[in-house]
Amino acid sequence: QVQFVESGGGLVQPGGSLRLSCAASGSIFSLYSMAWYRQAPGKQRELVAHFVSIDFMTHYVDSVKGRFTISRDNAKNTIYLQMNSLRPEDTAVYYCNKAPPLGAWGQGTLVTVSA
């Protein structure tokens, strides 16, 4: 059984920054293929950023390229999402999971970008 606990969300003005954290536990085996997803109001959940290979290469959805950075701390079984130059359209609940998803979703962390 795997568990994901997301944190770090909040209200931020356009152009601001936030850093999200995701603590993973259980049978995740490795942080390889860990990912960040988001779900905006009225929209489907989308994959935002993830590690795509055993050497932790990264991939981002086009809308966040150059603004978001996924990183990890193997010792803490934790991944992060540094989000810069935030836009109102980044407003969503952010989740972490494997890519493809494994087990139950966590509660997510709400990011609201608004003036």
Count of individual helical segments: 0
| Category by helix and strand content | mainly beta
Mean pLDDT: 93
> What fraction strand?
over 45%
The major pleated sheet works out as: 6 strands, mixed
**Fraction of helical residues:** under 10%
N-end to C-end Cα span: 40 Å
Report the principal-axis shape: globular
What is the N-to-C order of secondary-structure elements (H for helix, E for strand)?
EEEEEEEEEE
| Sheet with the most strands: spatial strand order | 2-10-9-4-5-6
Which consecutive residue ranges, at least 5 long each, have pLDDT under 50? none
- Let me know the number of strands: 10
What Rg do the Cα atoms give?
A: 13 Å
Question: Keywords, please?
Answer:
single chain; 115 residues; mainly beta; six-stranded mixed sheet; four-stranded antiparallel sheet; 0% helix
Topology record:
Elements lengths: L1 E6 L2 E3 L5 E9 L7 E6 L6 E6 L6 E3 L7 E6 L4 E6 L8 E7 L10 E5 L2
Parallel strand pairs: 2-10
Antiparallel strand pairs: 1-3, 3-8, 4-5, 4-9, 5-6, 7-8, 9-10
Can you describe what's shown?
With 115 residues, the chain is mostly beta strands. Helices cover 0% and strands 50% of the residues. It has no helices and 10 strands. The strands form 2 sheets. It has a 6-stranded mixed β-sheet with strand order 2-10-9-4-5-6, with no helix packed on it. Strands 1-3-8-7 form a 4-stranded antiparallel β-sheet, with no helix packed on it. Strand 5 (46-51) and strand 6 form a beta hairpin. The N and C termini lie far apart (40 Å). The model has no long low-confidence stretch (mean pLDDT 93).
